[in-house]
Amino acid sequence: MNLTLMSDFYELTMLRGYQRAGFRNKKAVFDLFYRKNPCGNGYAIAAGLEQAADYIENLRFGPDDLDYLSQTAGFDGEFIEYLRDFRFTGDVLAVPEGTVVFPNEPFIRVTAPIMEAQFLETALLNIVNHQSLIATKAARVAWAAGGENVLEMGTRRAQGPDAGLYGARAAIIGGCGATSNVLAGKMFGVPVRGTHAHSWVMSFPDELTAFRRYAEVFPDACVLLVDTYDTLRSGVPNAIRVFREMRERGASLKNCGIRLDSGDLAYLSKKARKMLDEADLQEVVISASGDLDENLIGDLKTQGAKISVWGVGTNLITSLDCPAFGGVYKMACEIGEDGAQYPKIKLSENPEKVTNPGIKKVLRLYDVETGKFKADLIALEDESYDASEDLTIFDPLATWKRMTLRAGEYRIRELLVPVFAGGKRIYDSPGTMEIRANCRAELDTLWDEHKRLTNPQIAYVDLSQRLYDLKDRMIAEARKA
């Protein structure tokens, strides 16, 4: 399906206004960023770039679109003719998917004729906000699980097919090991997992028969749901009996297990583990599901739950406690026909909503000895830095808070990479599992203090001296005017 019209109507009214004002050749720079970490987190995970790039590459107004806009929306013929040949001809830079990002730093930068750059706003925010939110939530869940396997299984509770599909992809990027969404497995090359529902057990005369039939069909990956009737008096004993029968037939129990879906998961898992071990079934794993999230997983682990596989559904795929990411798309600069730059700033009564002007880049600073994150520096595009020289950075709000990085003790990485140049897509997205691995490496560079679930340490995101001075001067000039 062509998504060109997946846009707020005001994008089109602005385009018509720009056209009337003679702005067709005026160029502008827009930044996509967010202001506050979701879920009370200490960071976010950038996701959605592949679908966003697909949208930009296939941006076309078809005949049906133009008929609709002409007849229903009331746009005149001149504007319709302009839209007939509408294509994206500009440049896009972005941080690769799976990258750790922080508030106020651009992780997508669009430079294009203003009508093209403006029109991308709604779709880019829709795609990137959703997927970055779910990837971030998944990273929290995976962190709480402490390296144990997390399965995304929320499709049935997602807000529609796209949310289920691309949410599953984002969850994999953020740290889930597999998904229950079969289409996601096909499209994105990610592992799919699943066992059976209570209805399977209820479809047979008794629980034992249901377990035996399932084991016959899936002898190499038999995971039995044990809470249909009575977990400890019926479900676990019947599962033990089936696993023993499988072993007698020579089957491997390496990928076999039981699943708990209700009740006190800490108590039940400890009792079930004891029963399995006493039956000499140490290799049989215990998985759990049922309204889990990072907080409940953390509590269960604190209570000594004997669970090694976590199935997380509703609370992950909807990010139930924080259902919106809050990314924004703001103009940062105009570019004249002679190439001259005219930085733009948005002021607000709320200090956190004042934007950073100019064409910017984001530099990530790492400690050479540990490889750990030190700070991010937002700088103007034409600034250059050399890690062989001392670098002093400062908090842009509390400017007396300064830190000097000594020459040779830090390294610099520029986060934004080219995605489109002159309207041509030049970036090949890695596979989803590769992005997941890159995300894990990114998270490994953060200190544990940044990753804790409650009251995380706030990462340093500073402005260069030139950018700080530009912003300060533009605020003063606006106030004077």
List keywords for this structure.
single chain; globular; 7-stranded antiparallel beta sheet; 481 residues; alpha/beta; 6-stranded parallel beta sheet
Count of strand segments: 21
Question: Which runs of at least 5 residues are low in confidence (pLDDT < 50)?
Answer: none
Any idea what the radius of gyration is?
Answer: 26 Å
Sum up the overall morphology in one term. globular
In what order do the strands lie side by side in the largest sheet? 13-12-1-5-3-19-20
**End-to-end separation:** 48 Å
Percent of residues in helices: 25-40%
Structural class: alpha/beta
What is the averaged pLDDT score? 96
Strand content: 15-25%
Number of helices: 17
Task: Describe the overall structure.
The longest helix has 25 residues, at 121-145. The mean pLDDT is 96. The protein is built from 17 helices and 21 strands. The protein is α/β, with parallel strands linked by helices. It is globular, with a radius of gyration of 26 Å. Helices cover 38% and strands 20% of the residues. It has helices at residues 9-20, 49-57, 63-71, 77-84, 114-119, 121-145, 161-174, 182-188, 198-202, 207-217, 231-248, 265-278, 294-302, 314-317, 432-444, 448-451, 465-480; strands at residues 27-34, 44-45, 91-94, 100-101, 108-113, 149-152, 178-179, 223-225, 257-260, 285-288, 309-312, 327-335, 341-343, 360-367, 373-380, 391-394, 402-405, 410-414, 417-421, 424-425, 461-463. The protein has a 7-stranded antiparallel sheet with strand order 13-12-1-5-3-19-20.
